[in-house]
């Protein structure tokens, strides 16, 4: 199948479900870190598969150019500021927008010790340089799991622990 056709198919499916493709190993790893708060949850697809105590927020929960309307799991309107109301929850970020401060703003207000991050590594197409600088300064990679990937993408599931 030509790359353009694959890219078109990827766009249809990411808008319908999620940017990252979950698998059982990743879902099990996330389940071990509950309770959770997810910022940038989109349609709540990953949350619906987890079946755990998770609260989901997105700045545009009714859909936007990256996410079709409709939900798989309840998603409330909100962004990084919602973390302050849930200090006892593990933060989960799934494909935070590229070159956007959302992920770094989340880390700046998050006081917990575990971060679940699903996306590409530093220099990839998720998060911003401030996010990766904060990761380097204060976090240690505890686990990395390979996810099913679209052609040309290199995303995975990272579990980071805050440096002592």
Automatic annotation (TrEMBL):
The protein, known as: Methyltransferase type 11 domain-containing protein
